[in-house]
Design brief:
alpha/beta, Rossmann fold, single chain
Length: 144
């Protein structure tokens, strides 16, 4: 199954690689192919100092965790996604969180499932009948 991972999932995985999220990203290779937008790497870099502060991890430990988690993801350049898909994605996200349009567009493009820890996004997409969205509990149950 193709799973598009949004930024908050990676944040959580970086903060604790031994968490459920970290375990799913690292140890479920046989069940899932993980993808993300190229832009997500920029978002992580933009929030790097905040991640260091929150995690209380050393720079090297955080760099190692990022390398390990990123090695499990296939990054897709958003420019590959056709405009028709962007328009569909925007209809889903415009009144929830427009910043998540990239992830919804990539999910539609790959015909995958979006994995998010953002409750507002998850509930909003479900309300709009977007069936290709999982939270961590959904993904964990699917992985059993």
């Amino acid at each position: 199954m193709k799973v598009v991972v949004d930024t908050n999932i990676i944040f959580s995985g970086l903060l604790n690689t031994k968490s459920t999220i970290g375990e799913l990203l690292i140890n479920s290779k046989s069940n899932f192919e993980f993808y993300s937008c190229s832009y997500m790497r920029f978002q992580i870099q933009n929030h790097w100092e905040k991640l260091k502060k929150i995690s209380k991890l050393s720079e090297q430990h955080l760099v190692d965790a990022r390398f390990h988690l990123f090695s499990r993801l296939k990054f897709i350049d958003e420019d590959l996604i056709p405009q028709t898909i962007w328009k569909k994605a925007l209809k889903f996200t415009e009144d929830i969180d427009i910043d998540d349009t990239d992830f919804v567009a990539l999910t539609l493009y790959l015909k995958g499932t979006l994995w998010t820890g953002d409750k507002t996004l998850y509930n909003g997409l479900k309300k709009k009948q977007f069936k290709r969205v999982f939270n961590t509990s959904d993904l964990k149950n699917f992985n059993l």
